[in-house]
Design goal:
DNA polymerase, domain 1, Rossmann fold, 2 domains, eight-stranded mixed beta sheet, 15 helices, binds S-adenosylmethionine
Length: 349
């Protein structure tokens, strides 16, 4: 086989450019630019539009004077919608691990005496409710992933659009390892696991090798740009580069924040914290979150869907709809972040 053919097949070893300012190969740069400059992806005003707000109220808020939990306060969008649908006896307790979300929650706490904000991982909701003598709740909402505030914050390193950001990626910036810590000090085994399981990358050794090469060549990985440079030389198929960038960012973020571990732990507590006829709603954004919900559902749900909340059919929960609920076309056109959302709703028997 001639030299030209080998090059076409991508066997020519890719290398990091000498200059850190000229980082991407041309095709990768073009794809990345397409991703970055899509005008509808950048909201003109920094706000987080709650995903499937109407559906959350429809399925979850059944008792106007009930006690509810917003497990992921974020920008407070779902909390505000829930509060709008409660009467003066209703109560809402919201959780988040991000200090800026907590700040927003503190403001709402001052404005509305029915509302409490708690800085804690949602895996600890049961502990909190028990310690504070609150007992079981009538509804709980999980809206997984990141808020627009986190994504757009250039100091957080969550978005591949902020190339100069420090690659932090911690939702709770006060504890744990950052993305930079993991990429610089993570073992080969750990990095392989991250890209294989959390990024669903079929050939993780390529990116793991390139992380190691980058560390040798430049000392440390520090910015989003450094990570993009590693990703660009690891992506085997330029046509798949956008997908590949997303997978790599998702993988690292899941590891940094222990997202799937927290989700599993929280799901395991639901039977103890939701009252009879109370509803759990979970909004997922990717297949790994869905997998966790499906595993929980298999263990905790009836195979049949009950129409009448009062019917007691043995298992702990029943799913309220056939499969999951999707945002309407109108919502998807108005709120880009909702495009991959799926809402799951379960009622406690
Ligand atoms: C998609 S946003 C929620 C947006 C919110 N529903 C709204 O309408 O404004 C997800 C939020 O959950 C928080 N979060 C993620 N994992 C968490 C966890 N394990 N415990 C508590 N909060 C978490 C994130 O910090 C983020 O603020």
């Amino acid at each position: 086989m001639g030299k030209r053919n080998i090059q076409k097949m991508g066997r020519r070893p890719k290398q990091f450019s000498r200059s850190r300012n000229n980082q991407f190969d041309r095709k990768f740069r073009q794809s990345w630019n397409r991703l970055v400059i899509r005008p509808h992806m950048t909201p003109p005003v920094l706000q987080h539009i709650p995903v499937m707000g109407e559906e959350v109220v429809k399925y979850v808020v059944r008792k106007k004077g009930g006690i509810y939990v917003d497990a992921t306060f974020g920008g407070g969008g779902h909390s505000k919608i829930i509060l709008d649908n409660l009467d003066e006896n209703g109560r809402l307790i919201a959780f988040d691990i991000d200090d800026e979300s907590i700040e927003r929650g503190r403001k709402l706490e001052k404005e509305d005496s029915r509302f409490t904000i708690v800085k804690s991982n949602f895996a600890n909701i049961q502990n909190y409710l028990e310690k504070n003598g609150i007992g079981k709740v009538d509804g709980i909402v999980f809206d997984l992933g990141l808020s627009t505030f986190q994504l757009m914050d250039e100091s957080r390193g969550f978005s591949f659009r902020n190339a100069n950001s420090f690659l932090d990626m911690r939702m709770d910036s006060t504890i744990g390892e950052s993305g930079v810590d993991i990429l610089n000090y993570g073992s080969r085994e750990r990095l392989t696991k991250i890209f294989k399981h959390y990024g669903q990358i079929s050939n993780p050794s390529r990116i793991v090798n390139n992380i190691s090469l980058f560390r040798k060549k430049h000392g440390t990985i520090t910015t989003v740009d450094d990570y993009l440079q590693i990703i660009s030389v690891s992506c085997g198929n330029p046509a798949e580069s956008i997908k590949y960038i997303k997978k790599c960012f998702q993988a690292l973020r899941i590891e940094v924040n222990g997202e799937l571990v927290s989700l599993s732990s929280a799901l395991d507590t639901l039977a103890n914290i939701v009252a009879k006829n109370g509803v759990v709603s979970i909004i997922t954004f990717h297949s790994l979150e869905e997998e966790k919900v499906k595993m929980w559902k298999k263990k905790n749900c009836n195979p049949i869907i009950i129409q009448d909340y009062g019917s007691n059919v043995g298992n702990q929960f029943a799913q309220l709809t056939h499969g999951c609920i999707f945002p309407s076309d109108l919502e998807k056109s108005e709120n880009w972040s909702s495009r991959s959302a799926k809402m799951w709703a379960f009622v406690k028997n």
